[in-house]
Amino acid sequence: MTGKRRYGNPVAVSDIATGILDPVMRKRAGLSVELVQSWGEIVGERLALSTQPEKLAWPRRRHEDDPFEPATLVIACEGAAALRLQHETGEVIGRVNAFLGFAAVGRVKIVQKPVKVAPQRRPRPKRPLTAPENERIDQLTAGIEDDALRQSLQKLGESIARKRG
To answer: Less Cβ around it within 10 Å: N or C end of the chain?
Structure first.
């Protein structure tokens, strides 16, 4: 380059942090940042308040030809919630596997210890749309007969309009 600096599009700090932390977490704990961040959505708010994923323990393979075996998900859990978690392990396994997109987890190991839960962020107040923005969204979705689909697309349009504005 000849002295000119190129500036790209701005990138969210969380994206940079995820890019840095994800490989470290995968190597040390076998977990992805997305799994930890989405834990509340995966297991539900009630369990998320007293549990957190610790690591994915993959069984060692002696040979490359050995068949795939699912991992053990180690979950830290506070005392009283351990029994509740134990009763819901089948559902937790199913939800984690659905989140990951394949049958990665075969069993859960519960480790009782204090759990620090990240404080929930309050969603930012939504900017009200202008009349022209509302009219444009209504025009674009007017020909859609399915009510549920039309409402979903209107919400999507509103979200896009708010980000652009």
So the answer is: N
